[in-house]
Specification:
The complex is a heterodimer of chains A (about 240) and B (about 725).
Chain A lengths: L11 H10 L4 H15 L2 H11 L10 H12 L3 H11 L3 H4 L1 H17 L3 H18 L1 H12 L17 H18 L14 H18 L7 E3 L4 E2 L6
Antiparallel strand pairs in A: 1-2
Helix pairs in contact in A: 2-3, 4-5, 4-10, 7-8, 7-10, 8-9
Chain B lengths: L15 H5 L5 H15 L3 H9 L2 H10 L5 H14 L4 H9 L2 H8 L5 H15 L15 H8 L4 H14 L3 H9 L2 H9 L4 H15 L3 H9 L1 E2 L2 E2 H8 L6 H16 L8 H13 L7 H14 L4 H8 L4 H8 L46 H6 L7 H8 L7 H27 L4 H8 L4 H9 L4 H14 L3 H5 L1 H4 L3 H8 L4 H14 L7 H6 L2 H8 L5 H15 L4 H11 L1 H8 L4 H14 L3 H24 L4 H16 L4 H5 L2 H11 L4 H15 L6 H10 L2 H8 L5 H13 L4
Antiparallel strand pairs in B: 1-2
Helix pairs in contact in B: 2-5, 4-5, 5-8, 7-8, 8-10, 10-13, 12-13, 13-16, 14-16, 15-16, 16-17, 16-18, 18-23, 20-23, 23-26, 25-26, 26-30, 29-30, 30-33, 32-33, 32-34, 33-36, 35-37, 36-38, 37-38, 38-41, 40-41, 41-44, 43-44
The chains are: A mainly alpha (about 240), B mainly alpha (about 725).
């Protein structure tokens, strides 16, 4: 796209006033939030939000129970319990997504290491996990990182400590949750089949738009922190 | 119901639960099945292990008996379904133990959940090439039953459409599915809000329409919700739809068009399907998709010149396809010849264009090689690593080596797709051929392709070469410079029928070019090969063989003519003159004509084979043939009459002379002309012995006949008669 005249840099004030001029419907906001709560499995929050705002959830909230239990099991490190639940609900899911299956098993291995059950961990890695590492170098690398934890007296101070961090459990829990959502008939009553939450999509759009503007070397007030929606004035050069 | 919390990840140590499968206590049996299920899901090693331990017969027994509860049957089926998601060997083991029949029988159950999981399992098994999919048709009411089950759940819709797609392999299948009402059901499913239902529905329709004019016609006139199926398909080709969906819809419309249900001028083809396929060939698309798009495009444009023209100017298609040939992983080219200078001189006789049965597109009836199937039915869309794990790479091979092999195969697929597309585009139009040939290094790519390790690439390269060889211009220029004949000849040695057919047609065209380059072709055994072709059962091959020999003999040197005649042998010539196919016969006569041209050659050949040749000509003239055939025979006589010593063969043959006079008065003008041409040569006054010949013919009444014919209205006949008459000296 070519410009016929060079635009001057837009000021932050101008930018903000343009933003303020746009009007977003409250009902749309509520839908977004409800969608987020339902997707992430915050059942009680969703119920309360429904009471307070009147926003209707797109699915029966009781159906969230299963996903909530699974997520809780993973975040509590009870991988076998989670796996058994998933296999009960969606028996084909882990067969279809072996990478996900590997991550669950890897998490179980990490739990064994965390509990100090070293021999069991080694045996488990040999009998169960080695299969996945055989055909894929990425998986092999992740497996090796996990096993390397065993080499350290204090694994939580090793370079691979991120695996022991609770955020790793959350990562796996989210991965599993997303897979379950895909496996369920993603008919969220509004005809779409993209995996929610929509909020993520919106944020990604912001990031994408900013990237495009950056690529074309346009100066504009940038949102630097998504979580707080902080907008910086355009950088001067 | 919560599954047992025993450690399910340590299987090999606790075998006891497998024994519990045989327990009469239903609860313990159920527990065991669930534990078994949990142990095999996700692990091919586990699947293999339990199959080896012999659990499958027990699971099948539980499914098939009439004592186990439906819950047990459901879990058993789910477990079997998981085993079927293992390696090819695992599925084969299940199939060998009769799983398919059992699943089909269970579809009659009242329990909807049980039916649902049976369908899931069946769908998984049917993804394997070893699955006995034809069992679907054993019970005539089964397909109808399946179609009724569609309404019960989305899962059923996905599974049943996938099963039917896999089971649709030949025209009988296509017709059976159509008769049992699959088309309206599929049309409805095209409008499903679920992508994973729409996709297999598209595949199923495509498989049903492929080369089946009856089914295609039914599909094109079906509708749902007030919209015709073709219009629904156009909606699914919209640019905002996922590309796999666009591809699926484009394939359907392509097959329907080729089967005659939609015309080439229909806007749905011209302005929707064709541009869609061109778009899907673009660089930004994944290789598998580009390959299928190019192959489908090749099939779409294969026979219609207008479509070829439109495609060739669409959206930079030719450079896009050229880029296929440079795909990473492809072996690079070693030479870099310049294209030669343009040729001039008079145009040779038009190149041959024998018709060849159209190549089938990318195995559409084989779901396991259908990219649509791979993406959606054996694995849900997920990151690349899982697809590696799913396929179970060969034991002992490193991941890097496996990757290199995959890349090479990908490059080969792209090459053959590009060649096929070029072959279709360049089939009829000279400008398009020029555009294609002008593509960077195309000839080198073709030459390399003729020698590629993959038979598919070789065949595609030959097809491409064949289309290009129809260009008179290219024969004189590009083809000379690139010695395409050498790899072509190599390819012809010991080639399979499909390659042989196209390659020999190409050789036929190459031989039209009368230049010194024929020498090397001869040296590499072309004559032997072509003579052998004339002995083949397939009439297309016989035709190519004799046609090529005919071209080769055109204005050739004496030693080439002799070699042809000697290698072919007069026996074989006689056989060919009795060939059931008239075009073979015609070309054989054409060969004789070409051999018997220029005086010294004529005399030489007649001196060696004159008797047999005369016999052959008489055979034709006396046979039950149409005028065009007999005309050729008469022309041969005319050529013989052009020789010196050869003239005697005719003059000494009372019977032939009589025939000639008869043909002078024949009802067919062309036969008259040919006969008089012969007479002309016989009486040509500048040649030795003309006086005696003229006297002889005058005695037979020839001059009188000429006088009768001079009053004709036909200009050509008049000319010939005039010429002949002026040869006669004053009597």
């Amino acid at each position: 796209m070519s410009y016929t005249e060079k635009h001057e840099s837009i000021t932050k004030d101008d930018w903000m006033s343009r933003l303020e001029g746009l009007h977003i419907q409250r009902a749309d906001m509520n839908k977004l939030i409800m969608n987020y709560l339902v997707t992430e499995g915050f059942k009680e929050a969703a119920e309360k939000f429904q009471q307070e705002s009147g926003a209707k959830p797109s699915v029966d909230l009781d159906s969230l129970d299963d996903r909530i239990r699974i997520r809780d099991a993973v975040q509590g490190g009870r991988v076998q319990e989670a796996t058994a639940l998933v296999n009960h609900l969606h028996p084909e899911l882990l067969d279809n997504d072996r990478y996900l299956y590997f991550h669950l098993q890897q998490l179980h291995l990490i739990e064994l290491i965390r509990a100090g059950r070293v021999e069991e961990a080694l045996r488990f890695a040999q009998e169960q996990l080695s299969e996945a590492g055989e055909s894929d170098p990425t998986v092999l690398a992740e497996l090796e990182r996990t096993l390397a934890l065993l080499a350290f007296e204090e694994p939580d101070k090793s370079p691979f400590a991120d695996l022991l961090h609770p955020t790793h459990r959350q990562k796996v829990a989210s991965e599993l949750n997303a897979a379950i959502l895909r496996a369920e008939n993603c008919d969220w009553g509004d005809g779409s089949s993209t995996p929610p939450p929509r909020l993520t999509g919106l944020l990604k759009l912001i990031l994408w738009a900013q990237e495009e503007l950056d690529r074309k070397k346009i100066k504009y007030p940038r949102m630097s922190i998504l979580a707080s929606a902080v907008i910086d004035p355009p950088t001067s050069k | 119901m919560m599954p047992v919390m025993e450690p399910i990840m340590e299987v090999e140590s606790s075998r006891s639960y497998i024994d519990e499968l045989y327990s009469p206590d239903a609860a313990r049996c159920m527990d065991a099945i669930v534990r078994l299920k949990n142990s095999v899901i996700g692990s091919n090693r586990q699947k293999g292990s339990v199959i080896q331990q012999g659990v499958v017969p027990r699971l099948l027994q539980l499914l098939g008996d009439n004592v186990s509860s439906n819950n047990i049957k459901i879990e058993a089926t789910i477990t079997l379904g998981s085993l079927a998601k293992g390696t090819e060997e695992h599925v084969k083991a299940l199939v060998d133990m009769g799983i398919v029949t059992l699943l089909i029988n269970t579809l009659g159950s009242d329990d909807q959940k049980l039916v649902e999981v049976c369908l899931c399992c069946l769908r998984t098994v049917f993804q394997s090439p070893c699955a006995p999919v034809e069992l679907i048709y054993d019970d005539p009411s089964l397909v109808t039953h399946l179609l009724n089950l569609l309404s019960h759940s989305v899962s059923n819709q996905v599974c049943i459409t996938t099963v039917l797609t896999a089971a649709c392999k030949n025209p009988e299948n296509q017709n059976a599915l159509c008769e049992q009402g699959a088309v309206p059901a599929l049309a409805a499913l095209l409008c499903s809000p679920h992508y994973k239902v729409q996709m297999p529905s598209l595949s199923c329709l495509a498989n049903m329409c492929f080369q089946n004019s009856n089914v295609s016609s039914v599909v094109s006139t079906s509708s749902y919700g007030g919209k015709s199926v073709p219009d629904l398909l156009v909606t699914l080709m919209a640019r905002d739809k996922p590309s796999e969906m666009q591809m699926g819809a484009a394939r359907c419309l392509t097959y329907m068009h080729r089967a005659g249900a939609i015309s080439a001028e229909d806007t749905k083809i011209l302005y929707k399907t064709l541009p869609c396929l061109v778009r899907l060939c673009k660089k930004d698309r994944p290789p598998g998709e580009r390959v299928l798009a190019a192959e489908t495009l090749a099939y779409l444009t294969e026979v219609d010149t207008e479509l070829q023209r439109l495609a060739s100017i669409s959206n930079h298609l030719v450079p896009t396809l050229a880029e296929f040939l440079r795909h990473p992983g492809a072996r690079g080219l070693t030479t870099n010849n310049n294209n030669g200078a343009d040729g001039t001189a008079s145009s040779p006789p038009p190149p041959s264009s024998s018709s060849i049965p159209p190549p089938p597109p990318a195995a559409p009836l084989d779901p396991s090689s259908d990219p649509l199937a791979v993406h959606h039915f054996s694995s849900l869309p997920s990151s690349p690593p899982s697809s590696f794990l799913m396929s179970g790479s060969p034991a002992g091979m490193t991941a890097t080596a496996a990757n290199a092999i995959r890349l090479e195969k990908e490059a080969q697929d792209m090459k053959q797709a590009a060649f096929r597309a070029f072959a279709s585009l360049g089939a009829n139009d000279e400008d398009i051929r020029k555009k294609i040939i002008d593509t960077d290094n195309l000839m080198e790519h073709i030459v390399a392709g003729l020698q590629d390790s993959s038979p598919k690439v070789r065949l595609a390269a030959v097809r491409c070469l064949h289309s290009l060889s129809r260009s008179v211009q290219q024969l004189r220029t590009t083809f000379q410079d690139h010695s395409v004949w050498r790899p072509l000849m190599q390819l012809l040695q010991g080639a399979g029928e499909d390659v042989l057919s196209v390659a020999s047609s190409t050789l036929c065209n190459l031989l039209l070019e009368f230049s010194p380059s024929k020498e090397p072709i001869l040296e590499s055994g072309a004559i032997d090969l072509l003579c052998q072709l004339t002995r083949r059962k397939d009439p297309a091959l016989r035709l190519n063989g004799i046609w090529a020999l005919m071209n080769m003999a055109f204005q050739a040197e004496q030693k080439i003519k002799s070699q042809i005649l000697n290698t072919l042998g007069t026996d074989q010539i006689f056989r060919l003159l009795s060939d059931p196919k008239v075009n073979v016969l015609m070309k054989t006569l054409g060969l004789l004509r070409n051999l018997l041209s220029t005086k010294p050659h004529i005399d030489h050949i007649m001196s060696l084979h004159g008797n047999q040749i005369m016999q052959a000509v008489i055979l034709i003239l006396e046979g039950n043939h149409g005028a065009e055939v007999k005309e050729q025979a008469l022309c041969i006589l005319a050529n013989i009459a052009d020789g010196d010593s050869a003239k005697e063969f005719i003059m000494s043959n009372e019977d032939v002379l009589k025939k000639l006079t008869n043909y002078m008065m024949h009802s067919s003008v062309r036969l008259q002309i040919a006969a008089i041409f012969c007479i002309s040569n016989l009486v040509w006054k500048e040649e030795g012995g003309a006086a005696e010949r003229q006297a002889r013919l005058r005695d037979m009444g020839v001059y009188k006949l000429l006088q009768q014919l001079i009053v004709t209205n036909d200009t050509m006949l008049f000319d010939k008669v005039k010429t002949a008459m002026t040869q006669f000296s004053e009597s």
